[in-house]
UniProtKB/TrEMBL annotation:
It comes from Abeliophyllum distichum. Residues 472-583 form the DALR anticodon binding domain. The chain holds residues 64 to 650 of 896 of the full protein. The keyword Aminoacyl-tRNA synthetase applies. Its main location: nucleus. It is an enzyme of class 6 (ligase). GO terms for molecular function: arginine-tRNA ligase activity; ATP binding. Residues 11-100 form the Arginyl tRNA synthetase N-terminal domain. It catalyses: tRNA(Arg) + L-arginine + ATP = L-arginyl-tRNA(Arg) + AMP + diphosphate. This is arginine--tRNA ligase. GO terms for cellular component: cytoplasm; nucleoplasm; RNA polymerase III complex. The keyword Transport does not apply. It is found in: Nucleus.
Length: 587
């Protein structure tokens, strides 16, 4: 049971076919095995789809093969013997179908139970990555879009971390715009002797609105505000202090949200990259990328109607110049191989232009499948019941903290209705309501293909039926209670018991468990967390199939089946963990 982990199931099958292909077509060294799960499980578990493509490659070259079928036959014959494969067959024009050995599936699962789920971590070709996510703007509201970015970014970071990638979780907060001139000037006006405390500008949003109003209605104030920007960017002490104060107050607000969501982030805001902008622009300039246009300095990008402005007409830098400097910094100072930006789809154009500029400058390779790589993870809008941008009754926009509060309190009400207030302590009730409530909000977001808009609906996400976190957490708790109620010591069983997959429903569940690694790999290389949600939901379905048809406690297969229950619970917990969901303590 102590054999070393050798990658995901799919990778292990691919390895066998790689060897076979080397023997079958020794002159075609660049051919990679094309392995996919079988469309129809009646034919097998996985299939190798290389034969057709190979045939078109070799047919003109005086080959011994008579067609794709005969290539398929040879691929099958040349497979090295392995305990992984039970049997193979050829279908259609040379597809090689593989039926996996259920003894081997069982053994692999048992090995994971003994050595831990970390041994199932996918292997990725990179060591370091930046995930740039959440990234609210100081003094402006942190809206649901930022909640989506926070949730999606966190889960991507978690999946990469699980895959042993060193992830720099970056909060690229907007802390350096021209709005600071106005804010600082207003601060000076409101608190002439500098006695600002949290309460005084506790509601930063209101403060922002008030200063904006002043800015728009009083030309003298406006002029002072514009000068204040210059003073701030010039590093004048008084202005720097006021700026830091405003950032600090804002930061405390969004850190409350992160704490509730259990999300870790390291702030490196726009201001951090400011000193690197001139250098980065100089490099781009040397490459002849920057041109003068209508008084601004810009980069023209092929196929785009508008250029990327990197120095404004007034000489100031902007969002794009900051992003170019940050990209340079991340590649050259932090030496990361992959930079992932999580924002709404509305910023796609911006990132396309920034990435294209970086490619033309030679900072990034021209090919998208090579590292270092930059990827934009765009997501759609959060909609309300009315199909419009999500808002709450009382306010124009949704305060994130209120939203989380409501999820929690609704959960608490549901728990109390189920009589939990009598069984649990107040802390237990609270802890569970929090875990389920926040988990529900996250899962409702993550289960959708991120590029689409989704409708925010408390009733739906907190339902205990259907594809919801509540249902899945409940399914997990039920599995744990089956194990607990058996009265067996599961840790002991892992060591002395044997897992067997005799019943067809056991085999289906076992195979699904073994596919965990390749699903995580797919979800984080293609940057689609919904793939993992789908996997988790199907896992609970497969478990139900198994549990409906296979008696666990009291059967002659009890030990084996308890091990299968435990493996399911372990994988489910890892899924929850990767999705940022905390299962409530057992009740
Ligand atoms: N602050 C921006 C916003 O709220 C998001 C920043 C995303 N990251 C970046 N490197 N541009 O829209």
């Amino acid at each position: 049971l102590d054999q070393e982990n050798v990658g995901s199931l799919k990778q292990q099958i691919a390895k066998l076919f790689e060897e076979s292909l080397r023997l079958t077509v020794p002159d075609e060294l660049d051919v990679e095995p094309a392995i996919a799960p079988c469309q129809n499980p009646r034919f097998g578990d996985y299939q190798c789809n290389n034969a057709m493509g190979l045939w078109s490659k070799v047919k003109g070259k005086g080959t011994q093969f008579r067609g794709p079928q005969s290539i398929g036959q040879a691929i099958m014959k040349n497979l090295p013997s392995s305990e992984i494969i039970d049997s193979c067959s050829i279908a259609g024009p040379g597809f090689v179908n593989v039926v996996l050995s259920k003894q081997w599936i069982a053994k692999s699962i048992q090995r994971m139970l003994v050595n831990g789920i970390e041994t199932w971590a996918p292997k990725l070709p990179i060591e370091r990555a930046v995930v740039d996510f959440s990234s609210p703007n100081i003094a402006k509201e942190m809206h649901v879009g930022h909640l989506r970015s926070t949730i999606i970014g966190d889960t991507l970071a978690r999946m990469l971390e699980y895959s042993n990638v060193n992830v720099l979780r970056r909060n690229h907060v907007g802390d350096w715009g021209t709005q600071f001139g106005m804010l600082i000037e207003y601060l000076f006006e409101m608190f002439p002797n500098g006695e600002v405390n949290d309460q005084a500008i506790g509601d930063l949003e209101a403060f922002y609105k008030a200063s904006k109003q002043r800015f728009d209605s009083d030309p003298a104030f406006k002029e002072r505000a514009q000068k204040a920007v210059v003073s701030l960017q010039g590093g004048e002490e008084r202005y720097r202090t006021a700026w830091a104060r405003i950032c600090e107050i804002s930061r405390r607000g969004y850190e409350r949200v992160y704490e509730r969501l259990g999300v870790e982030l390291e702030e490196k805001g726009e201001s951090f990259y400011n000193p690197y902008i001139p250098g980065a622009l100089e490099l781009l300039s040397q490459q002849g990328l920057i041109e003068e246009s209508e008084g601004a300095r810009v980069i023209f990008i092929e196929g785009k109607n508008i250029p990327l402005i990197v120095v404004k007409r007034d000489g100031g830098y902007n969002y794009a110049s900051t992003d170019l400097a940050a990209l340079w910094y991340r590649l050259n100072e932090e030496k990361v191989e992959w930079i992932i930006y999580v924002t709404d789809v509305g910023q796609r154009e911006h990132f396309e232009m920034v990435f294209t500029a970086a490619k033309r400058a030679g900072w990034l390779p021209a090919e998208d499948n090579k590292y270092p790589k930059a990827s934009h993870v765009g997501f759609g809008l959060v909609l309300g019941e009315d199909g419009k941008r999500f808002r709450t009754r009382s306010t124009e926009t949704v305060k994130l903290v209120d939203l989380l509060d409501e999820a929690k309190s609704r959960c608490k009400t549901a728990l109390i209705e189920r009589g939990k207030a009598e069984q649990w302590t107040a802390e237990e009730l609270d802890e569970t309501a929090e875990a389920v409530g926040y988990g529900a909000v996250k899962y409702a977001d993550l289960k959708n293909n991120r590029t689409t808009n989704y409708t925010f609906n408390f009733d739906q996400m907190l339902s205990d039926k259907g594809n919801t976190a509540v249902y899945l957490l409940y399914a997990h708790a039920r599995i744990c209670s089956i194990i607990r109620k058996s009265g067996k010591d599961i840790e002991e069983l892992k060591k002395v018991g044997t897992l067997e997959l005799a019943h067809p429903d056991e085999r289906v569940l076992g195979l699904h468990l073994l596919q965990f690694a390749e699903i995580v790999e797919e979800a984080c290389t293609n940057l689609f967390p919904n793939v993992l949600c789908e996997y988790l939901y199907n896992l609970s379905e497969d478990f139900t199939g198994f549990y409906t048809n296979c008696q666990v406690v009291g059967s002659s297969e009890e030990i084996s089946r308890l091990l299968l229950c435990e493996a399911t619970a372990v994988v489910m917990r890892k899924c929850f963990h990767l999705l940022g969901i905390t299962p409530p303590p057992p009740s």
